[in-house]
């Protein structure tokens, strides 16, 4: 059986409602950490004006490839291997999307994600991130506090990130916050847009 995420199934429609507007003027999207491929398939199907490039670490590619191939969508490309601890191939997209990754990876990996993503965006390019965030150092809900404690017990380098710290990373890479949208289950979708050119990573 193909891997399946209940969370992806629940949140794909709310995320789509934000992406439909945020990516209306975009043409190509790189998704970082595509996981089961449910988001990639759904968004590529519902946003046919976009080409959608899924990616994940090499160990996850076989199942992701199968999910994308089964969808049979001409605008959904075969997934590629991307690792936040390794150099990335030369890629250019006018939007980058990632869901539920920042709290799973370490903070240095979060930093590299922003560096690599921004370096591949043209002027007016979009970076869209979905997941839970703290604000002013505080949890937005008790469920997020429990989730954070579980994450850190499993891996001390992971955890729910502070919005202000993440936004600072974006601004360092020439990205300006355009939208901070509340989502179901105490999550957010953050949309940044590139305002200046920087050196490639």
Keywords:
201 residues; alpha/beta; Rossmann fold; six-stranded mixed sheet; two-stranded parallel ribbon; 6 helices; 10 strands
Describe the main β-sheet briefly: 6 strands, mixed
Radius of gyration: 16 Å
- The secondary structure category is alpha/beta
Coarse morphology: globular
Helix and strand run: HEHEEHEEHEEHEHEE
Count up the helices.
Answer: 6
State the CATH superfamily name.
Vaccinia Virus protein VP39
- Residue share in helix: 25-40%
N-to-C span: 38 Å
Describe the structure.
This protein has 201 residues and is of the alpha/beta class. It has a single domain, classed as Vaccinia Virus protein VP39 (Rossmann fold, 3-Layer(aba) Sandwich). Helices cover 36% and strands 22% of the residues. The protein contains six helices and ten strands; from the N terminus they run H-E-H-E-E-H-E-E-H-E-E-H-E-H-E-E. The strands form three sheets. Strands 2-1-5-6-10-9 form a six-stranded mixed sheet, sandwiched between helices. A two-stranded parallel ribbon has the order 3-4. Helix 2 links the parallel strand 1 and strand 2. Helix 1 packs parallel to helix 2.
């Amino acid at each position: 059986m193909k891997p399946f995420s209940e969370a992806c199934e629940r949140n794909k429609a709310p995320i789509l409602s934000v992406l439909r507007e945020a990516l209306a003027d975009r043409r190509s999207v790189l998704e970082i950490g595509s996981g089961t491929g449910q988001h990639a398939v759904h968004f590529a199907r519902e946003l046919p004006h976009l080409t959608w490039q899924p990616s994940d670490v090499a160990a996850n590619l076989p199942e992701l490839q199968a999910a994308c191939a089964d969808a049979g969508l001409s605008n959904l490309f075969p997934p590629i291997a991307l690792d936040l601890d390794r150099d990335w191939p030369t890629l250019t997209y006018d939007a980058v999307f990632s869901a539920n990754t920042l709290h799973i990876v370490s903070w240095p990996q979060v930093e590299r994600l922003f560096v690599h993503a921004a370096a591949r965006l043209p002027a007016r390019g979009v970076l869209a991130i979905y997941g839970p965030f703290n604000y002013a150092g505080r949890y937005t809900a008790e469920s997020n506090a429990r989730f954070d404690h579980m994450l850190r017990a499993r891996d001390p380098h992971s955890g729910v990130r502070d919005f202000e710290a993440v936004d600072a990373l974006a601004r360092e890479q020439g990205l300006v916050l355009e939208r901070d949208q509340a989502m179901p289950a105490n999550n957010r979708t953050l949309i940044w847009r590139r305002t200046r050119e920087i050196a490639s990573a």
